[in-house]
Write a structure and sequence with these properties.
This protein is α+β, with helices and mostly antiparallel strands. It has helices at residues 44-52, 98-103, 111-124, 140-152, 170-187, 198-204, 222-227, 232-237, and strands at residues 4-11, 21-28, 33-37, 59-64, 67-71, 74-75, 83-86, 158-162, 190-195, 207-212, 215-220, 242-249, 252-255, 258-260, 272-277, 282-285, 292-301, 306-313, 319-326, 336-341, 347-350. The strands form four sheets. The chain has a six-stranded mixed β-sheet with strand order 7-8-9-3-10-11, with helices on both faces. It has a five-stranded antiparallel β-sheet with strand order 2-1-4-5-6, with helices on one face. Strands 14-13-12-15-21 form a five-stranded antiparallel β-sheet, with no helix packed on it.
Length: 361
């Protein structure tokens, strides 16, 4: 049984013509880390608040460990849901020491047990020795670990994170992602976090739920959303990609660059589709035999790869830009390159950005 299950959950605020969250169905298994990913206005914060019990759904249901906590006339208060929340601004009490902040949610326990639980959580989160400090004496990363320890101390079934890395500078982000993920995994906690940063989602989450205009566009593993996006919006959200218009024919995929092979059978002849070809999906060749010949208009050394912008002639006499990434050890002339698309790396999507009905479930 899923620890968290949402069934057609919606929220429409008074005065708004469109719902902030629109019939989102989703499940979260025990021990899993799930990211709610989306740009500003996608509905991710409203969705988190309905799960936490800070907002009442307009329709739909929220189940925690098989128990209905919201929907069908039921609304269980936030403090009774067995959920811990780590807020974006950490919400530490500035006038209390770290130890007192930690013990705030443990007042129901005897003093000895309260102390033992606090010490164990501080050891787990790497914050031992900070008990007597005040929040203003902590760094951003230390505040975040203290906030996580405080949320985990009561032993909740589920931890919710509100943009956990938004206030961490880019130099520290990678390390903080590793630390927080290790703490969650070591404790066996189930976690859900919201973010607008695809790198956060891919580095932290076992699965990602991509939201757009309140709808669940696609849910899957980071690999699935990167390599098999349902539409161009999802494809572009996870980094650079080449979006190529094509038509399905009996012989493959007819594009401006010629006919490419089609292995999938679900597409009908005559159907307009879009191909997502990641920059790293191109193979650099030494001659033009069977290749696209591109004029290099820009190149950038990115450390792990060289990125080329190539103008490739089309069959109608025009040119289209393709972004190509090659390993630093690979070389081509200053002005020209011969490239071939790896057939196994061509992903076919429907020809518009409308989400499929199945994505909503």
């Amino acid at each position: 049984m899923s620890l968290l299950r949402l069934h057609k959950l919606s929220k429409k605020f008074p005065g708004s013509r469109v719902p902030a969250v629109d019939q989102v169905s989703l499940s979260l298994e025990r021990g899993e880390i799930l990211a709610l990913l989306g740009e500003s206005g996608s509905g991710k914060t409203t969705l988190l608040r309905m799960i936490a019990g800070f907002e009442t759904p307009t329709s739909g249901e929220v189940f925690i460990d098989g128990r209905l906590v919201a929907g069908n006339g039921v609304f269980m208060e936030a403090e009774r849901r067995g959920i811990g929340v780590v807020f974006q601004d950490y919400a530490l009490f500035p006038h209390l020491r770290v130890r007192e902040n930690m013990e705030f949610g443990l007042k129901h326990l005897p003093a000895k047990e309260r102390k033992e639980r606090t010490e164990w959580m501080m050891e787990l989160t790497g914050t031992s020795g900070m008990q007597e400090r005040y929040p203003h004496e902590l760094s951003g990363g230390q505040k975040q670990r203290i906030a996580l320890a405080r949320a985990m101390a009561p032993g909740p079934d589920l931890i919710l994170f509100d943009e956990p890395f938004s206030s961490i500078d880019s130099m520290r982000k990678n390390q903080m992602r590793k630390e927080i993920k290790a703490i969650i995994n070591k404790s066996g906690t189930t976690a859900l976090f919201i973010t607008h940063d695809t790198k956060d989602a891919m580095a932290m989450a076992d699965r990602i739920c991509m939201l757009k205009k309140g709808k669940n566009i696609q849910t899957g593993t980071p690999y699935q959303l990167y390599n098999t996006p349902v539409n161009s919006y999802v494809a572009s959200s996870f980094g650079k990609t080449n979006l190529i218009s094509a038509e399905v024919t009996g012989g493959g995929l007819k594009t401006a660059f010629g006919v490419l092979p089609l292995k999938e059978t679900k597409w009908r002849a005559g159907e307009k589709v879009t191909l997502s070809v990641r920059p790293e999906s191109f193979i650099l060749e030494s001659n033009r035999n069977g290749c696209l010949c591109g004029e290099i208009t820009d190149r950038s050394f990115m450390g792990e790869f060289n990125e080329l912008v190539c103008e490739v002639p089309t069959g109608n006499g025009g040119k289209e830009e393709l972004v190509v990434r090659i390993a630093p050890g690979k070389s081509c002339s200053e002005n020209q390159c011969f490239i071939r698309i790896s057939e196994s790396m061509i992903h076919v999507m429907r020809g518009n950005e409308e989400e499929p009905d199945s994505a909503r479930g």
